[in-house]
Structure formats: C-alpha cells, structure tokens
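Sync notes, pocket subgroup
Present: LS, DG
LS reminded everyone that the earlier model was apo-only. Rerun requested with coenzyme a persulfide included. Inputs:
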Amino acid sequence: MASAFDEESFAQLLDAVDRFVRHRLMPLEKQVEEAGEVPSDVIDEMKKMGLFGLGIPQEFGGYELTLFQEVQVQMAFSYTSPAFRLVFWPNVGIGSKGIVLAGTPAQKEKYLPGLASGELRASFCLTEPDAGSDAASLRTTAVRDGDDWVINGSKRFITNASRAHVFTVMARTDSSKRGAAGISAIIVERGTPGLSVGKPENKMGQKGSPICDVVFEDVRVPVSNIIGGLDAEGNGFRMAMQVLDAGRISVAASGLGMARRLIDEAARYALQRKQFGQPIAKFQLIQAMLADSETEYLAGHALVMQAAAALEAGQEATAQAASAKYFCSESVSRIADRALQIFGGAGYIAEYPVERLYRDARALRIYEGTSQVLQLVIARAMLKRYE
Ligand code: COS
C-alpha cells in the first residue's frame, strides 16, 4: 500500500514529532512516572497533531502512513517515556488495524473517523488469565442468540482498557472447534451492559500507561459486529496474528527509540564523569560497552527497516517481524544494563532517567509475544524451508 503522504510532508511530521518529544514531553517524564498518568492538555495536543490517526486511511481522517513511515514515528516517540506514545499508539496499531485491514465499509465508516481524531480510543483484547502465549486456547465465548452475540469471559493486561471506547475482542463463536478455528474478532463498545474494566495494575515500569482486566458478563452485541461481517466468522485468530505481525515490528521500533536514548544518556555521562583523573569515556572497557550498544542498535535498525519493507510489500513477513522484535527487545535490555553500568551508582537511583528506562525496557521482551514464542515462530518458518 503506497502512502498518500508525500516524502516532504512526512519529513515535516517527523520533525514536529521530534520537537514535541524533546521539548514538550521529556521535561514531563518524572511527573508522569510519579502521577501515573499523562496530563490531559498533552493528550489534547496529540489530538491536534493528528497522532491518533497515523495509520488510518486519509478518507477517514488519518495520515495513512506506510508501515515504513510508522516505524520511524514510533522510534522518534520512543526516545521518551512509553506512557506518552501508549496514549495514542493502540489507535494506530493493534486497536485499529483489524478494522483497517478487514472491517466492513460500515464498520470503517462508524469507527475510523473517531479513532483517527482521538475522540474514540481503542483496545485489543486477546490475552486472558489462562491464555497468554497459548493465545489459541482462549476461553471467552460469544454465543449466538437471535441477532446478537452474548459474550462471556475475561481478558487480562489489556493496554488502555480504562480509557478505551472500542474494544476488539477475540472470542470463541464456535465452541465445537478447538484452538484457533472458531475464534472471531468482535467489536464491543464501552458502556455496553455487562462490560466492566478493572483497576489499572501496578506495573514495574511503563508507568502512566494503564493495563487492566476486562470482564464480559452476558454482554450483547449485534451479530454484525464481527470484524469483516458474518462471513468472517472464525477468522479472528488469523486476523489477530496478522495484526501482531505489524505490531511486533512496531514494538521492535520502540525498542530502538529507547536504545537510542539509553546510548545517548550513557555516552554523554561517560564524557563528563571523571575517575582516575579523566572522563570515564577514555577507558577502553567503557568504550567497549558503548560500541556493543551502538552495534546492536544499528543491527536492530536494519532488521526493523527490512521487516517493515517486506510486510509493506505484501510479502510473508511473520518470521522477519518476529526476528526484529526478538532482537530489538532483547538488545534494548542489554543496552539498558550497560547504560546503567556506565552510570554506576548513579544509574541505580531514580535521580537519573536510566533507572526508569531500565524498568521500562523490560516489558518489551514480554508483550506482543514473549522472546520464547518469537523463537518458536522463527524456527517454525525456518524449518518449513528445509522440510
Ligand atoms: N498471519 C496469518 N495467519 C496466521 C499467522 C500470521 N502471522 N500465524 C498463524 N496464523 C494462522 C495459521 O496459518 C493457522 O491457520 P489455519 O488453521 O487456517 O492453518 C492458525 O492461524 C493457527 O496458527 P498456529 O497453528 O500457528 O497456532 P498455534 O496455536 O500453534 O499458536 C503462536 C501459534 C504460539 C505463535 C501464537 O499463539 C502466538 O503468537 N502466541 C503469542 C500471542 C501473543 O503475542 N500475545 C501477546 C498479547 S497481544 S498484545
């Protein structure tokens, strides 16, 4: 899909994002960490910049960026705390992609303009208390009753659930089938009787970005709420996996943005911190840590760009997306660890951002596919080539 957004306009957008991140958001990082929320005036500014609609087609009010462009914005935004980008990224990525890729014209018309403007916020509900990595074993059911689905079950660790208006819910519409078959993706609106959202969890990092349980008790929605319409019944798992292919490239790009910040912080600190009579940057063991981090950053960058280009070109890119996310999420953890080591004692206290970035980076190896699930996905695709 070619972008309707030309190169010059995209360069201007990227420049505006960069300035917003460095001048408006970075000074607020500590406040967001402590308050656990992003100020509402910042969210209003994000709406004005059109950030909620980055990936949504222009005919519905979005920018219609290509995935290749999207990952560049993701990298720029990930230079600051994840809480900021997680305000709008679910509308760009997993919360809206299902409707963009597979929605009926009526579903697109109804939801995409609001998702693009930020008036509506989206959440993607796949994970359950007993279905994490084994997503196809999910137990939430949607039973047909006349013209409605009646949904029962619960979802766990759902990003942005407490502020979402539109939920994409993966539920079993055919209980006679096990595994992936029989799962459909259903749109449920906030306020539907029987839908409740739990309290935001107290997380290790990424503070200010809520994740909550979502519970469905006899929630009724029209049968037409299946993404893609009734003909798409049973396609929910495949659609979720397709959405996750793009999502994983995006998480990899967020790892790169965080890595860039960590390397910049560590290199600047190494140049000004003196020990044994000189800046510690002069010591070769410090230089080795910086060089390893820079090399991993560059390797990850190449992987992300390659995976984004492949998916954009319509190629089978599941394993490439998994490789990009696997490498970038693991390497940003190593980069965070080295940055903390370079800061020494100062890296272990909350005064400097490295302590917070270290905790923020840890989640990347878990969400949208653990490193171990991604290893399986990569190996499966490889072995198919050899069989
Ligand atoms: N794109 C399109 N279709 C896909 C796909 C993809 N990337 N991956 C799998 N599918 C399809 C398969 O082709 C298969 O379809 P058919 O039944 O028509 O052949 C179906 O989906 C089931 O796939 P598979 O047999 O591979 O399912 P498994 O149960 O073995 O699960 C893993 C595969 C483990 C890879 C999957 O469950 C997974 O990714 N788990 C992690 C979930 C996750 O990332 N959760 C994070 C929370 S979301 S924020």
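DG: The radius of gyration is 21 Å.
LS: The chain is about 50% helix and 15% strand.
Action: DG to write up.
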